[in-house]
Amino acid sequence: MGYKLAGYDVIGDCEIDPKINKMYLANFSPKYNFSMNGERSKNWGKLKKFREGQADQILDDLFFYFIQLAKRLQPKVVVAENVEGLLRGNAKGYVNLIIKKFHDAGYKVQLFLLNAATMGVPQCRKRSFFICTRKDLDLPNIKLNFHEKPITYGEFKDNHYKPMNKNTLFYKRWLKRIPKDRNIGDTVKRTENGKISMFSFTFCKDSEVPNTLTASNNPVRFDVPGFISDKDMITIQTFPQDYDFNDMSANYVCGMSVPPIMMERIARQIKIQLLDKVR
Fold this sequence. Notes:
Number of helices: 10
Largest sheet: 3 strands, antiparallel
Strand content: 15-25%
Radius of gyration: 20 Å
Number of strands: 11
Structural class: alpha/beta
Distance between the termini: 24 Å
């Protein structure tokens, strides 16, 4: 979607998750569609384990299949995206291996850590991006510097929300919130001195840019006792409101994806700074 917004023709896709692939086809009609079902998908995520910052994350060797495909197709530019934590701790060894494989495939690599909040996206979402150019083209290094005005939650929040059950402990904890609390976990830690982990319930505050959406978190409204609406979640991730989620959770899909506007900003600069140089 980001590439299309930047004026590209998207001719195909390759997706390992059959549900995501079905959703993709419900929204787009690519000329080529490859679905990687079967035995391979059963073992997805079980092959390698790397340390990413402070949390363990299962990483598969799909990245290397991706590089092998790039080696065969030899596109002028290759873009790959991954988590922010890929640039910290022991995961750096994994990054170095990725860079080496790209070099072996004939590509020069630049690695960027970008925050969607500086790119016209109403969300603090940091992601790492590999921008790779074919060595034989001798293209210049790309510069990705974004400084767009932050968009706070109060600028677009929905009038509707998902109310909390006021007969629950969760609601009683929400009542104890103070402005400096970033999430319900902060509130619990401050008021109960406990070890209850509720840090995924991040607060959406009118004066701040929303925090990173994940597939498992459920952002909480700071101003009213409730959770943000699906409309808000879709806006925060910069999906169109009429996007067909194909009976899948908007929370899950948005949390697992790159914001289209974030990708549009990158794709547009790739066209201006790189692709237009070789036409």
